[in-house]
Amino acid sequence: MTYSGRVTVGGPADVHELKDLMITKVAVGPMENNAYLLRCRATDEQLLIDAANDADALLGTIGDDGIASVVTTHRHGDHWQALAEVVAATGARTYAGRYDAEGIPVPTDVLVDDGDVVRVGQVELTARHLVGHTPGSIALVYDDPHGHPHVFTGDCLFPGGVGNTHKDPEAFASLLHDVETKIFDVLPDETWVYPGHGNDTTLGDERPHLAEWRARGW
């Protein structure tokens, strides 16, 4: 089956099979959050991005192999509703952006700064600190040595625009700047984008609209 990135709450997961990494996408909870399970093919170690909701569904996706770590992309409550239960069941180490960790009611084992590397087995993910949706939102970039990059953007970038900045011009300017300079300016059009809600996209599909986003202010 070809990966589409389209998932629904209660529906099946969608699996993106790369040479070194398997990415399983599921949708959970009333806000239809995306959670992503990453599995290193060489070691079978697993990492979860956003234990957003429905711990039973997430633990079922994780399976008997467990997870070594769970990354919370940002402090908003819809992205960590199942975090305590998932950590209790798996013993996973917790990661979050340094400036959002205080807003997450589960202790963060590893505070993540811009440019830090988060590992799952032999696979390396580079954290990018994107300010505006929250003070400490992070995206994770996997620069696939066998193909194009993949970026997990939390709520900082979606099909059609950057994340919600609640009509705050300064927050919007900050988020758009960080998304442009740390994502669009350094990654190619083929880069696959995995957002915190909804369907996936690519940087190439979104890049032509950057000026439009700037002009509209959201």
TrEMBL record:
Q: State a single Pfam family of this protein.
A: Lactamase_B
What organism does the record attribute this protein to?
Streptomyces lusitanus
Top-rank taxon: Bacteria
- What SMART domains does this protein's entry cite? Lactamase_B (SM00849)
Q: Where is the Metallo-beta-lactamase domain?
A: 32-197
Q: Identify the taxonomic lineage of the organism of origin.
A: Bacteria, Bacillati, Actinomycetota, Actinomycetes, Kitasatosporales
- What protein am I looking at? MBL fold metallo-hydrolase
Q: Which residues form the signal peptide?
A: none
